[in-house]
Amino acid sequence: MIKKRTALLPLTAIFFALSANADVLLKDNTDILGKWKVYAESNKLDGEKKKLIVEWDFKSDGTLETKSTDGGGRTKEMNITIKYAVVDGEIQKQEIPGRDKLESCKVVEKDNSIMTLKCKYLYYFLTKI
């Protein structure tokens, strides 16, 4: 009996470790609608975070309005609108405005007020505004 329990412990630990790192699947765009502050980006989930001053506004019409502010004051503010959709639980968004090439972003973590996205090259850390 003790051998069986001992054998199950590593399997249970692996199951919980995998489920803790599982991506969050969005049911549709209502899960992300509204304004989000992108406060940091990183090339690793647990890596050093680069501070950002960016706002993403997910609109119900499938557009994502991005407003970024240059903290150094060189370029002031830049506004860009791109298309997005929720497909198979992930965010598919245009990489470049006016182009058809899409970037897939998985939701790594989400609750009502925070969200972490894993896009092609970077992780983005967001808070709901």
From TrEMBL:
Keywords: Signal. It comes from the Bacteria. Residues 1-22 form the signal peptide. This is Lipocalin-like domain-containing protein. It comes from Crenothrix polyspora.
